[in-house]
Every structure is written in structure tokens, then in C-alpha cells.
Amino acid sequence: MRLRITHHSEYRYDAPLAYALQRLRLVPRSGPTQEVIEWSLRTDGAAQEVQFIDGFGNDTRLISIDGEPHTIVIEASGIVETRDTAGVTGRHQGLAPLWLFQQETTLCSAGDGISALAKRAEGEADVERLHSLMALVREEVAYRIGTTDAGTPAEEALTNGQGVCQDHTHIFLTAARLMGFPARYVSGYLRMDDTDEQAASHAWAEAHLDGLGWVAFDCSNGISADDRYVRVATGRDYRDAMPIMGIRIGMAQEELAVQITVEQ
């Protein structure tokens, strides 16, 4: 499937910024499930300082903002040709060792709830147990926007019984690691059936299985990733793969508007 994507972020400030630095992970890379046909990253009101591939294999850019601009625009756009591989991304690559994806993080730390959830996953084969886990997460945590935020830990989201794709992914990752699987967070885009316009990017999980490599599980939709998905960044949790993160110095108040389109 050939997908055209535009991810437009606009930051507005009520006063000049003394200084700000942002890290962008907004550039997809070609791989087993996709080929990037064309892609551009535009920043207005900011200067790119450096570009590098991080330890998780993500194309990463650092941009700085200093003084005058009251509006910063970041726009990533392009065309990606995707392939349906039944959720299989393939063998592990990159600098980060597999054992790193079995470690707890602040957002993916197991309590009694996730420990019990992991024990309920059933199946003779590893892939069956992980599909069972995906169904359990979807069953236990209703998809509701605005009930959690970027800093909500997996155990808290499970206890609340509601959240968004980020929370579903964190719960799955935490439980999968308890079950003995390396598991990682994936941020990217999803072509939806009923609309081109979206309010946010998408997130899902990948678990590493012997003989298959990385396999994708989208708890929010109850499926493995197919050719409607575009992978952009991976990491241990949201903080390693978030599209835009940064710091700013000064008293200026910030307003953010995001517009994303994913169309065939």
C-alpha cells in the first residue's frame, strides 16, 4: 500500500524564548515492512543542530530555538510504500542488545495487576500466548482519550481500566517482559479506514520470538500490524520513541496544535 503522510506541529509562545532544544524522531527508515519513497522534514523558526542514528536505530534530529520566533512549525511529510508481513518485522538489528528490551523502565514497571495479567495469557506456542496477552490488554483497558497522559505508568493505566494506544502498549510490553520476551515500543502512523485526519500518531508493541524475530501487536485494534502501518521509531517505552521531546528556558507559555493526515 502506498501512503502519503503529513505530520504538522505548530508551537505558539506568548513571549520570546530564552532557549529551547527539541529532539525529533519523525523520519521513517526503509526496512522489511516498508520502503520510504520520499520524505522531508521542515522546521520554521528553529535551526537544525545535528542529525544522527540513535542506539535504537532511529533517525534523530536536534533543533534549537533562540529568542525572536513566537511560532515554531515542524512538518514531516512524505510517501511510504508498505508491505503486509503478517506483523513480522524480522531479525534484530542495531546497537541495542536484546536483553535491554527485557528491562523494566519507569513507564513499564510491573505491579500486582500486570503480574496477574501476564499469568492469564494462554497458548501452547509463544505467538499464541502473545496474541492472548494482546486480547487481554484490550479487554481490560478501554480506549478513552484524555484519561491518561505521557507520564502515566503501565500499572496505573491497567488499574484505571482506561487509556490510549500508548497505555495499551506499555501494559503489553511490561507483561511480555515478565513472560520472558524482549519487547519494544513502536511509534508511527496508522492508515484508518474511516478518516484521513488524525489527532495524534499511533503506537504499538513488538515482541521478539525465536525463529521469527520481532513481531508486532497492536492492542488498541486487536491485530498484528499490516500494510496500513508505518514504523518511525522504536525504544524501550514512549520516552525512547516519542516523535518530539525537548526542554525550554524562559517564562513563555506554550500552545501546541497538531494535525496529521494519513491517506492512501
Task: Briefly summarize what is shown.
The protein has 264 residues and is α+β, with helices and mostly antiparallel strands. Helices cover 19% and strands 44% of the residues.
SSE blueprint:
Elements: E1 2-13, E2 17-27, E3 34-44, E4 47-53, E5 59-67, E6 71-82, E7 88-90, H1 112-120, H2 126-140, E8 142-143, H3 154-160, E9 162-163, H4 165-178, E10 183-190, E11 197-198, E12 202-209, E13 213-217, E14 229-235, H5 238-241, E15 244-249, E16 254-263
Parallel strand pairs: 8-9
Antiparallel strand pairs: 1-6, 1-16, 2-5, 2-15, 3-6, 4-5, 7-13, 10-12, 10-14, 11-16, 12-13
Helix pairs in contact: 1-4, 2-4, 3-4
Q: Can you write the helix and strand succession as a string?
A: EEEEEEEHHEHEHEEEEEHEE
Separation of the first and last Cα atoms: 7 Å
Structural class: alpha+beta
The CATH architecture assignment of the largest domain turns out to be Roll
The fold-level CATH name of the largest domain is: C8orf32 fold
CATH class of the largest domain: Alpha Beta
Note the main sheet.
5 strands, antiparallel
For the largest sheet, list the strands in their spatial order: 3-6-1-16-11
- Mean pLDDT equals 95
- Per DSSP E runs of 2 or more residues, the count of β-strands stands at 16
Helix content: 10-25%
Strand content: 35-45%
Number of helical runs? 5
How many domains? The number is 2
- The low-confidence runs, each spanning 5 or more residues with pLDDT under 50, are none
From the alpha carbons, calculate the radius of gyration and give it in angstroms: 18 Å
State the shape.
Answer: globular
